[in-house]
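Fold this sequence, please.
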Amino acid sequence: MTDGLSWIQDALREQSFELIAVRDAGVEELAVMLGGRPGTVMDPPAFNALVAAAGTAWRLPDLARLGARAGWAFAFETGDGPHRADRDHLRPLWEGRTWIQVSDTKMDPPTVRAFVDGVWDWSYCEGSVHEQVRPDHPLTVRMTAEIGLDRAVPDPDYPDDPDECSLYIPPMAEVYRLFGLHYGLTLPREVIGNPMFTRNDLYGVFTAPAAGYEKGLSPGGS
């Protein structure tokens, strides 16, 4: 199977990654939403050559590899871009949007969250759905039924003591699969491969520092 989301768990298990996907957006638009300067998105061959010359994407400034699929624009980011405070000026571009974020630092448990029409809708980390998600959320209900979300695992030494039970942690590949199905996001594995390799069909844009915007010229600014 080439599409879906479950494959990213296996394909990207050796490296950290930050995936952002926005519905009803284009590659150029998403690049700007992430801090890229308008008109600076590079086509795949050109950006692959740049990465190859550097030896690895990790030696370059913060960047995003971008693509589009079935009504979604998506990006894999490197560096500190997703966490930089100098992106505050970009917030107006995200208002009213439907978007998802998957973050795997390889140091902390992966986190998954979704916004629908600009409103936070659902998030998950280390076996638990965020406590503020309503219990009857259809994604939570489906995960509970299909992959054992919130199932208790008895301690083999104390099988009859509920206080000794631990929380079952579903495989992340299954979490990604159901998450993608629920929000209608599927990514083409044959195009992405490994997003930081030098050979793939993803566009590229630099997102740091602050996209090089001059004061007063940032999106949404005056």
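The two ends are 47 Å apart (CA to CA). The chain has a mean pLDDT of 84.
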